[in-house]
Amino acid sequence: MIQVVRGWRDLPPQQRGAAVAIGAFDGVHRGHQAVIAGAREAASRLGVPLAVVSFAPHPRRWFQPDVAPFGLMTPDQMARALEPLGVDRLYLLPFDGEMAAMTDEQFAREVLGDGLGIAHAAVGFDFTFGKGRTGSPEALRRYGETSGFTVSVAERLDDADGLKLSSSAVREALKAGDMARAAAILGRPFAIAGEVIHGDKRGRTIGVPTANVGMGDYVRPAFGVYATRTRLPDGRTVDGVANLGVRPMFQTEEPLLEVWLFDFDEEIYGQVIETELIAWIRP
Predict the structure, then answer these.
(1) Whole-angstrom Cα distance, residue 92 to residue 59?
(2) How far apart are CA 230 and CA 276, in angstroms?
(3) pTM of the model
(4) What CA–CA distances, in Å, run from 265 to 209, 232, 238, 261?
(5) Which candidate, 159, 238, 243, places its Cα nearest to that of 202?
(6) Do 94 and 6 form a contact (C-beta atoms < 8 A)?
(7) How far apart are CA 93 and CA 71, in angstroms?
(8) Of 281, 203, 254, whose CA–CA distance to 69 is shortest?
(9) Which residues contact 281 (CB under 8 A, 6 or more apart)?
(10) pLDDT digits (tens, 9 = 90+) for 97-119
(11) What are 16-43's pLDDT values in tens digits?
(12) CB-based contacts of 157-165 (< 8 A; 24+ apart in sequence)
């Protein structure tokens, strides 16, 4: 089972010394997976654990606190997406004022070298780091030479249409209701995880009970009706349909995912479910 480590200071020896892939990794899409593959090769060659270094909250949320919701996954979803890729450990570094003020050299030496004690860093071709985003893969390689770690850089990965595989491209596809396109970039369907909250129970009165989930910081896909597949806390999956949009009876302008689960009538209020949006059906 993947180990989640929050922070980088005063780590015990058994949580140091990994080959790491570094980035926000929102969505853990196919481009991210190429970076992780570079770290996996190094981990195998060096005989060390494979880890991912990410940030919580997302750096964009720190620098633009009022920006519209844009997330593609929660930290728990990230951990689950990384586990099948062979990742042993997920470092979630707090992106706060201290982290934002670090120069590229400070981040490389203090966080990666002294704090995590990494053996190797794998990054994307467009990776930047440090205050003002002044650090580059080449700079990281220089710092690694004196801090005891090597560096590999993943090349740009395009899909068959020549479009960059990026988190931004996933968000654009979701906003357009193109779930197939989003899934092609992600390597799996986009999924929303959240606690089931009480609704107006109108569906139950007509024999079609629903599970209502708030959208939180997820990017807002196109509103409408979707074909879905929901994973329950016990691991079962249930097909269904869902409506994504604003529900006036909730007295809020925040959108809600209202899921009808086929042949299912169990009470799941307060439980966390994960619903894949398989296909957009209609507005």
Answers:
(1) 12
(2) 6
(3) 0.93
(4) 7, 13, 11, 8
(5) 243
(6) yes
(7) 17
(8) 254
(9) 224, 225, 226, 227, 241
(10) 999 999 999 999 999 999 999 99
(11) 999 999 999 999 999 999 999 999 999 9
(12) 157/30, 157/31, 157/34, 159/30, 159/184, 159/185, 164/31, 165/29, 165/30, 165/31
- Other Cβ atoms less than 10 A from the Cβ of 227: the count is 15
Burial per residue of 87-100, b for 16 or more beta-carbon CB atoms within 10 angstroms, e otherwise: bbbbbbbebeeebe
CB 212 within 8 A of CB 244: no
Q: Are strands 120-124 and 89-94 parallel, antiparallel or unpaired?
A: unpaired
Q: Go through 40-52 and write b for each residue having 16 or more CB atoms within 10 A of its CB, e for each that does not.
A: bebbeeeebbbbb
User: What are the structural domains of the chain?
Assistant: 3-154 (3.40.50.620), 167-282 (2.40.30.30)
